[in-house]
Amino acid sequence: MPRIRYVVRNIYAINNLFVNWYLATNIAATRSALIVPSIISMIDPEKKADTTLSKILTALTAGLAFLALPAVGAAVPVATTLVGTILTTSLQQAPSVAQAIWPQGDGENSQIVQIGDLQSELAELDAQIAKMLNAGLSNIMTDVNAFAKFASSTAFSGQEIPSLPAETEGLDLAFKTYLVTRAMAANEWLAYWGPPTARTVLGPTARPNPTPRNSSATSKTMVYAIP
């Protein structure tokens, strides 16, 4: 009986994590779609920047693991970082689950998406996020070896069940970073670290160095005040 209770508890906890992951990711996508276009409109007014749906989905669904990085985790709640660490560890132990979520050569999601029109893709993003996470969960629940490996860290059998709030702070950080960086690259924006006393500047600025290769003296530059 103890062994049965252990397995049942792991099944419940893993299912709970994937449901939380889906809900939180979906909300993060919606919130980002409301915020990012206004930023992109300044960086990419001619809508030059595009990417594939597959890359957008990867940036979104990998956001939780991204929060497990030490440099990022310090800016989000400890509980969220812990769940990100648990997920990252479990996926490393069960590579077949990661492959099910992020299949190699995903032709189905290869269509081109305009970053500035992200809001129009929300319904498709929601459907594909659900499909991806369901594929990973299905692999865990139908393959004994995958289940054993994914649960081997014992994180799903403790007193506290790994859980995420629907609005998980920082979950969209990797997603927004990817989109803005992609838009900057498509429009030849540059980024460099400014002096700590400077205020953030967005727009054409003078260059501190000679004109780099493949750019012009009037190229746009973003100056960050963060030391």
Structure description:
The chain has 227 residues and is mainly alpha-helical. It is 55% helix and 8% strand. It has a three-stranded mixed sheet with strand order 3-5-4, with no helix packed on it. Helix 6 packs antiparallel against helix 7.
Short description:
The protein is mainly α and 227 residues long. 55% of the residues lie in helices and 8% in strands.
| Overall pLDDT | 77
Total helical segments: 9
Number of strands: 5
Low-confidence stretches: 196-227
The major pleated sheet works out as: 3 strands, mixed
Helix percent reads 40-55%
Strand content: 5-15%
Distance between the termini: 57 Å
Radius of gyration: 20 Å
Tell me, briefly, the overall form: elongated
Side by side, the strands of the main sheet go 3-5-4
- Oligomeric organization of the protein chains: single chain
Q: What structural class do helix, strand and pairing data support? A: mainly alpha
> H/E order of the elements?
HEHHHHHEHHHEEE
Task: Furnish the topology, listing elements before pairings.
Layout: H1 2-43, E1 50-52, H2 53-61, H3 63-66, H4 70-73, H5 78-93, H6 95-101, E2 112-114, H7 122-142, H8 144-150, H9 173-186, E3 190-193, E4 201-204, E5 220-224
Parallel strand pairs: 3-5
Antiparallel strand pairs: 1-2, 4-5
Helix pairs in contact: 1-7, 1-9, 2-7, 2-9, 6-7, 7-8
